[in-house]
Amino acid sequence: MSRVALITIARGRHAHWLRQSDAVRRSERAPDDRILVTMGDSELAELARADPSGVHVVELPGAAPELPLARARNAGAEAALARGADVLVFLDVDCLPVPGLLGAYADAAALPAVGARLLCGPVTYLEPPPATGYALDQLPDCPHPARPAPAPGKVLLGDDPDLFWSLSFALTAESWRRIGGFCEEYIGYGGEDTDFGHTARERGVGMAWVGSARAHHQHHEVEDPPLRHLDAILRNGALFAERWGRWPMAGWLDAFADRGLVERTSDGGYRQVGAPLG
């Protein structure tokens, strides 16, 4: 049987982590290793170390507002591989896995026509929890419409790297090494996961959507467009364009432009209004 590591990265969101831990304990197939990578959050690290089920904690320093998401995922994978993982499952700290998620990813990774791919699962976004918290056995099943969502028990092959998301995905150790991890030049919000999807495709790793690997995204407040991440989105967008020849996150960038915060450049890119042309 394959050795499965569950990897989560986080700063803050302590209540979300505790709810996720409750959900993980209900898993039909327990992770062989559970790894948390904290980004400048010693309190969360201590909280995780106190978990009686055992959590391997990797602490990355830094209190900057822009999180090193790519570096953190790479650190989690490195720790998992060092501990003998065959299958790496990445789950956002906001996500609650259904009991069958880990088993579904492990089973898909063992399928000859599927296992060498990036494996993604459908995610349902939840409303704010009631005062008593989410009832884990009564969560709705309404996957996000912008991503494929095959029925439980089904697997759908696909090769559009723009649809890859890092909320919930898995891959074999061999595929991780073939892709080479996330590009750590991305700092802060946006772009690093789409870059990972494109790198995977470039290196011959396709995608598959695993219907039984379902998760539920816990509610938290969001900005649309994410104004507080404007600088990071512009910087990471420019990096993506340099690497892949086009800008990602066009919806957000156009929304920023509509508000007069950014403007298009003659080469089809974007820059902050008032920024030097050079």
TrEMBL record:
Pfam families: Glyco_transf_7C. InterPro entries: Galactosyl_T_C, Nucleotide-diphossugar_trans. Keywords: Glycosyltransferase, Transferase. Pathway: Cell wall biogenesis; cell wall polysaccharide biosynthesis. It comes from the Bacteria. One of its GO terms (molecular function) is glycosyltransferase activity. Residues 168-212 form the Galactosyltransferase C-terminal domain. Belongs to the glycosyltransferase 2 family. This is Glycosyltransferase family 2 protein. It comes from Microbacterium caowuchunii.
